[in-house]
Specification:
It is a single chain. By secondary structure, the protein is an alpha+beta fold. The protein has one domain. 32% of the residues lie in helices and 17% in strands. It has two helices and four strands; from the N terminus they run H-E-E-H-E-E. The strands form two sheets. Strands 1-2 form a two-stranded antiparallel ribbon. Strand 3 and strand 4 form a beta hairpin. It is globular and about 45 Å long.
Length: 72
């Protein structure tokens, strides 16, 4: 069991209150935290990952979507 620090909790709460989501599937025993941003915010996304890496099962995955003509 891994205990979340207050700093990690604040990151997760901030993500969920903004653009993030949690996805739970029946095929995996691990919930997935999602956060979609443009590539301009890559440094922010990588910083979030490094701060939460001890609770992450895999590295971040890149997915591309076009919203209102912008790549995300």
């Amino acid at each position: 069991m891994i205990q979340l620090t207050n700093f990690m909790k604040s990151i997760l709460i901030g993500i969920l209150l903004s653009d993030g989501w949690v996805q739970i599937t029946h095929t995996s025993k691990y919930p997935r935290i999602g956060l979609k941003q443009s590539m301009l915010n890559f440094v922010f996304l990588w910083n979030v990952f490094t701060n939460l890496s001890m609770i992450c099962y895999t590295y971040p995955k890149l997915s591309i979507s076009i919203i209102r003509g912008k790549n995300f």
